[in-house]
Amino acid sequence: MSTSTTSPEPPAGDSVQTGPGGGGGRSPMAAIRRRLRTGELGAWPVIIGLIVIWVVFQSLNERFLSPQNLSNLTLQIAATGTISIGVVLVLLLGEIDLSVGSVAGVAAAALAVLTVRNGWGDLAAIIVALLLGMAIGALQGSIFARLGVPAFVVTLAGNIGWQGLQLFLLKPEGTINLPYTGFIGRITHVNLGPATGWLIGALAVLVYAAAVLLDTRRRAAAGLPTRSPVRSVLRIVGLAVLVGVTVAVLNAWQGVPAALLILLALVVIVDLVLRRTRYGRGIFAVGGNVEAARRAGINVTLIRISVFALTSTLAALGGILIASRGYAAGQSTGAADTLLVAIAAAVIGGVSLFGGRGSTYGALLGSLVLGSITSGMFLLQLDSSVRFMITAAVLLAAVILDSLSRRGRRSSGRA
Q1: Distance CA 146, CA 351 (A)
Q2: 3-state secondary structure of 350
Q3: Residue 117 gets which letter from DSSP?
Q4: Domains identified in the chain and CATH numbers
């Protein structure tokens, strides 16, 4: 279930033209067999699993794929999906951050204290909460990167310590309610109008099409392999269909939720940073081989500290979304299974536990898988114990597939 963004070779399965004039190619079936043999499975196992989950729950309850339930599903995954994007970054380093749930909770608590008790403006309080998350991540990253304390231990201590700070900030009430009409409360309760939803969807497809065309021209001009025009057109058409169906379904209820746009924007932006910038390539390099990255002149310490800072910042944003969704910040904000769901979503989405392989789109797919399971179980009125066992089975399957994929890459010399 791993995806690679570091290999200079064109993705397996793409028809390839070896230069401006083209001419090279590989049959689709041969490409599929090569993917299976080398462990380059991409996101297909997750997509197929998601389709199976949707088919099963729809057959058991006809309301599962209703516009109302799907709209609720997008709101349900907005916060944990945001936190999971940060988890993807730290997993790409081959490390782990066990404090993201507590960071989300303490950021939400700080936000509520500043706005409700101290009368701060919503935007100013949001900025401070995000800066708090960044400072926490930088502190933990510095202890790990500069002092050599294992990230597991540092963030485990942080998980306990920041939860204590959260409880301290919320004294004596334990829960601070946010106003329904304020900006914070409206973040996850505002939906776009039908026309606005279609406009944003069309712009997204046009931007993607322009990016594909520009990338093809740049690679052709540089004499690098390019995808065939047919393949590129199919990708654009596929995105257009996906966006069109999504907007149509959500408009059938109350419109596209603003929280979903926040999540999708974060997925795209962070993915572009990872794939298109020197900093992003540095993250993959450090996660793939620390010593090789150091010898290549990459500032490993800076990469590690900054990644932990970004992870905690995204966790703080997730805490803000949780508080917005519930109109309150309490002792349970960021607690319960927030941490486990965020990590599980990244792993299920195809991010390798061994570092150096994965993408932010995996966090989105993994969040959809877990959110779908939770939503389906709720509609079927099944006990939470069943949901936990099914989630555990899905997570274990993802880890096993990741290990098998890694073994396949190693045997083919691509590990």
Answers
A1: 26
A2: coil
A3: I
A4: 43-190+257-408 (1.10.3470)
Residue 309's pLDDT is what?
97
- The phi and psi torsions of 328 (rounded to 5 degrees) equal -165, 155
Please check whether residue 372 is in contact with residue 50, taking contact to mean a CB–CB distance below 8 angstroms: yes
Determine the distance from the C-alpha atom of residue 73 to the mean position of all C-alpha atoms in its chain, rounded to a whole number: 15
Least confident range of 19-28, 69-78, 178-187: 19-28
Global pTM reads 0.87
Contact 113, 90 (CB under 8 A): no
Element (H, E) at 175: strand 175-177
What is the CB-side half-sphere exposure of residue 342 using CA atoms within 13 A? 35
Give residue 385's pLDDT. Answer: 82
The span from the CA of 175 to the CA of 127, in Å, is 21
Residue type, 399: V
Tokens at residue 300, please? 């490993």
Q: Where are the alpha helices (DSSP H) in 327-359?
A: 338-348
CB-based burial label for 330 (10 Å; 0-12, 13-18, 19+): buried
Q: Where are the alpha helices (DSSP H) in 222-329?
A: 229-251, 258-276, 278-288, 290-295, 300-326
Where does residue 215 rank: exposed (0-12), middle (13-18), buried (19+ CB within 10 A)?
middle
